[in-house]
Design a protein that fits this description.
Blueprint: H1 6-22, H2 29-48, H3 54-72, H4 78-96
Helix pairs in contact: 2-3, 3-4
C-alpha cells in the first residue's frame, strides 16, 4: 500500500508560497485576502445559484473584498466603505424579498 501524498503536496505548496513571497511575486496579505473574499463570493454565487440567501451574502462578500482593497490602497475611507456597504446590504435585502427569487436552490 502506498503512503498518502498529503505531506508531499503540503511541502510543494508551502515551498511555492515561500518562493513567491521571497521573490516579491506574492501580493500583500490584505490584497490576497481581498482577492480571496471577492472570488469566494463569485464562486459561491455560481455554485449556489440565485436564492434568497445567496442574493444577499455572495454580493456582500464581493463588496467586502473590493472595499478592503480600496481601503488598503487609500482610495476609499473607512466611513465611506461602511456607508456604501450598508446601502448595498439594504438594497440586496429588498431584492431578496421578491417572490421571483426562490427560497432554496431547486434540486435537479
Amino acid at each position: 500500500m502506498k503512503p498518502s501524498a498529503t505531506q508531499a503536496f503540503i511541502l510543494i505548496i508551502l515551498g511555492a508560497l515561500w518562493l513567491l513571497k521571497s521573490t516579491a511575486l506574492l501580493p500583500d496579505t490584505t490584497t490576497l485576502l481581498a482577492i480571496l473574499l471577492a472570488s469566494a463570493g463569485a464562486g459561491l454565487l455560481l455554485i449556489d445559484g440565485i436564492t434568497k440567501s445567496s442574493v444577499v451574502t455572495n454580493p456582500m462578500l464581493i463588496y467586502t473584498g473590493a472595499a478592503l482593497y480600496l481601503f488598503d490602497t487609500s482610495r476609499l475611507r473607512l466611513s465611506h466603505s461602511l456607508a456604501l456597504g450598508m446601502i448595498l446590504l439594504g438594497i440586496l435585502m429588498l431584492i431578496a424579498r421578491s417572490d421571483r427569487i426562490p427560497e432554496r436552490r431547486l434540486k435537479k
